[in-house]
Structure prediction request, 344 residues.
Amino acid sequence: MSASEPVVHLAFLPSAGMGHLNPCLRTAALFLRYGCKVTLITPKPTVSLAESNHISRFCASFPNQVTQIDLNLIPLDPTTVNSDDPFWLQFETIRRSVHLVAPILSSLTTPLSAFIYDVSLISPLLPVTEKLSCPSYIYFIAPARMFSFFAHLSVLAASNPGEHPSSFIGDVIKIPGIASPIPRSSLKVVDREEEEVLEDVLGSELMDKVKEKGMVVKDYVKQMEILGHPAVGGFVSHGGWNSIIEAVWEGVPILSWPQHGDQKIASEAVRTSGVGIWPEEWGWGAQDVVKGKEIANKIKEMMSNESLRVKAGKMKEAARKAAGVGGSCELIIKRQIEEWKRNA
Prediction:
C-alpha cells in the first residue's frame, strides 16, 4: 500500500460463544491479509477461557494491524432474565451494553471505513449504526437460506397479523426464490451448564466402554484439526453452521442431528448438497428418544456410503479453490476494499 492510498480501517464487534467469535475473527483475518487495519471491540469479561485465549492469540498474530479495545459490560441483574445458561446470559449482557459502543467508535483517531458486527446484536445496535458516518455490515453465521427467512419474516408478519409472534408460521414456510419450502422450527431452551466431571454426566460404565475405543472431551477443542486428521471418516454433528463449514473444508461426510435455532435449515443444506445425511425422523432437540441401534445404523450408513465421500471430496476442492489465490473469495474481498478506498 502506497503512502498516498487511504487506510481501510474496520471495527469488529463479536458476540458470545466460539461459534460467533470464530467466524468474526476469520473474516477479520481475511481483510488483514490485504493490508487493512482492524479495531477489535471485545466484550469483557468473556464467557469462557477459550474465547479469551483465542482473542489473545489473534491479536498477537497481527501486532501492527489490530488494536483491541475492551467493551466493559454492565453487570446483568439475574432477576430480569428467565435463563441461567451462561452463554445466553452473556448474549443478553452484551445486548444491554452495546450503547457503550458509540463512544468507543467516536474516540477512534483513524476514520472508520466500516463497522462489522454479529447478527445477534442487530436490534440494540440500530440506534448506534444509524448515526455512523461509515457503512455498517452484519456477519451472518448461518446458511444463506436462513438469511432469506430473516429477510422475508416481516412480509410474513404483515400478511398474517396475529397476537402470537409465531401465529403466521405454518408447518412450512414458502419464500420467493427458494424452490423447496423451509420446515417450521422452534427455539429450544439451552440447558444449564453444570460444573460436573464427565463421569457424573455420562456415567462411569459408559466411560469405561469408551476408554479403549475413543476419547470423550469436555473442554473446547480445535475441531477443524480433528476433522482434518486422516483417521476421521465421518462426523456426527448438531448441525451448527460453523461445524458444517469445517467438515466441508476437510472433506468429511456429515450425519446431521439438529437441536435448535437454524440447525434444521443447515441440515437441509447438508442433505441437498450431497455431503451428508439428515435423519428427519429423529425429531427436534429432545422431541423424541432415539435408540442407540438407530444411531449406530445411521453412522454405518454414512461411513459406508461412497457417494457421500466422493461428494464431500469434491466440495472440499471447491471450497479450497474459492478461498485460494485468485478464487471468488479473494475477488470479493479485494472488490470490497477498493470500494471502501473510493469512498474514503
Q: What stands out?
A: The mean pLDDT is 84.
